Amino acid sequence: MELSDSWTTVRESHALFLALTYILRSQRNVKDILHSYLLATHFDPNWYKAWHTWALANFEVVNHLLNQAEAKAADVMGTTLVPHIIPAVQGSVHLWVHVALIKPCVQGFFRSIALRSENSLQDTLRLLTLWFKFGAQDEVSHAIASGFSTVEVDTWLEVIPQVYYPFDYSPVPLTYFVQIIARIQTPNTNIRRNITSLLTDVGKHHPQALIYPLTVASKSPSALRKDAALAIMDRMKQHSPIIVEQVRSRI
């Protein structure tokens, strides 16, 4: 083994040791838990466990703070607060919680998913929770958009309603989550833009997984939902015209 290879092995082992040290330290010192997990990701940036643990710790803290803030908001709304002030109070809860924690939490989950492309459904679902709850905020929206390019597009197949569609038979829906398609008509610009971007990318790689739920959405009585679905289908026709026309003719 050359000296350079030996030094690389020693350096990687040392980084892993330091990362593990900070993980173990955080279990003994709750006060420094987030900082310790962050240091673990710095000392071994390619270790899935470090990124997953750091993101999950932030996620749990966010949930805890959100529950506390919503409880306080409920106390305020239980007083003589005038009705038109209530939405402002509820909105300020999400804004206050996200500022320091949501962006690194999103980045951490994207990194952990990228390092462990298989069996990452739970992290993906947590990421979706953050996206749909806080994605209206510009900083979070930018973190989401940037993260799309860091993970495999197949990551999203488990959270998009898929169908097996042999064109000689009727479409058979599979029992997958419908979280993304269900929000295609969201009125918030940031969230809707990211959904459109993601579904367009998925449609390029897996048109058969996307075309049926989009076709159903395109027949919705909601004009916003219908227009959003048709816009994505028009993009899909550029690279998969046969699939689009076959499915649309059968529904």
Task: Summarize the model shown.
This protein is mainly α and 251 residues long.
Please describe the structure with a list of short key phrases separated by commas or semicolons.
251 residues, mainly alpha, two-stranded antiparallel sheet, 71% helix, disordered N terminus
Explain the layout of strands and helices.
Elements: H1 3-28, H2 33-43, H3 48-77, H4 86-115, H5 121-134, H6 138-148, E1 163-164, E2 172-173, H7 179-182, H8 189-205, H9 207-217, H10 223-236, H11 241-250
Antiparallel strand pairs: 1-2
Helix pairs in contact: 1-2, 2-3, 3-4, 4-5, 4-6, 6-8, 8-9, 8-10, 9-10, 9-11
Stretches where pLDDT is under 50 for at least 5 consecutive residues are 1-11, 80-93, 162-177
- Shape verdict: globular
Helix-strand pattern:
HHHHHHEEHHHHH
Query: Major sheet: order of its strands?
Result: 1-2
Work out the helicity level: over 70%
- Terminal Cα span: 63 Å
Work out the helix count: 11
What is the β-strand count? Answer: 2
Largest sheet: 2 strands, antiparallel
Q: How does the helix and strand content classify structurally?
A: mainly alpha
Rg measurement, Å: 22 Å
Mean pLDDT: 76
Strand content: under 5%
